[in-house]
Amino acid sequence: MSIHSSTPTLSPAGIAALEAINARSPKARPHEALPDVCPSRLPRHVAIIMDGNGRWANERQQPRMMGHRAGAKSVRSLMETVGELGIECVTLYSFSMDNWKRPQAEVEALMHLYLEYMSLERPALMDNNVRFRQIGRSADLPPIIQAGVAALEAATAHHTCATLCLAVNYGSRAEITDAARAIARQVVSGTLKPEDITEDTLSANLYAPDLPEPDLLIRTAGEMRLSNYLLWQISYAELYVTPTLWPDFGREQFLDSIREYARRSRRFGGLNTSAT
Fold first, then answer.
1. Which residues form the catalytic set?
2. Global pTM?
3. Which residues contact 212 (CB under 8 A, 6 or more apart)?
4. Which helix (H) or strand (E) holds 27?
């Protein structure tokens, strides 16, 4: 059955959006998972600050690492829903540069959990045609982590349905600093004139310039701050803050965030030109 015949209630914009989504992700069924949201209103890129793992564990009188493990399970649930909706990219704030300040035992456990996650989730990434990416200062990570990331990125580099990007040893100010250094090297080498530097120049020198800028930034656990996360890229992103702790942020909570996003009018400094 064709898209047109099976979705008679969609507008022309919705049908066009659904066709584009299915061209990239044939199994996606956003009009079934979210029948109250037109596919043309879906975000391409969702960024998430996954906060509340420790509080979740404390509330249950469990070790903090149990909260992190529960949070890792929420990532799998999230990616299943992302596949249903045909969302193009998700970037997760997994380990900030400031997280090195945590107790050494917790940091080592988090690195071990990351290795375990990459191993356990590899079959799902392969089966669902999901590309894996990591952004951040990877050279400062343990060599075994660097090797695992490189292997998984290489194995999934040709995947096209969606991209799962993890921000690990990441800080937005560091990213912008690294971009400025790269641009300075180009100026010194004579390949770039200072007067030719534009916003696009800086964007092109960020960690993942091929990814679209986030349309929606979700923060769990109710904190009202950006925590040095994708500051350049989220200049026009819609913000969604929920008191739900990350391990409790499941399919229905994610769908609610998409509904809220779809209701908003994105003007980008101009008048309302949003599609219906």
1. 51, 99
2. 0.93
3. 44, 45, 88, 89
4. none
Residues 167 and 205 in one domain: yes
* Domain that residue 208 falls in: 43-249
Q: In this predicted model, what pLDDT tens digit does every residue of 193-240 receive, in sequence order?
A: 999 999 999 999 999 999 999 999 999 999 999 999 999 999 999 999
Residues 134 and 217 in one domain: yes
Count of the separate structural domains present in the chain: 2
Q: Which residues contact 242 (CB under 8 A, 6 or more apart)?
A: 218, 219, 220, 221, 222, 249, 253, 257
Give me the residue label for tokens 């096209």.
160
Q: CB of 235 within 8 A of CB of 203? A: no
Percent of the chain with pLDDT over 90: 92
Burial 94-108 (b: 16+ CB within 10 A, else e): bbbbebeeeeeeeee
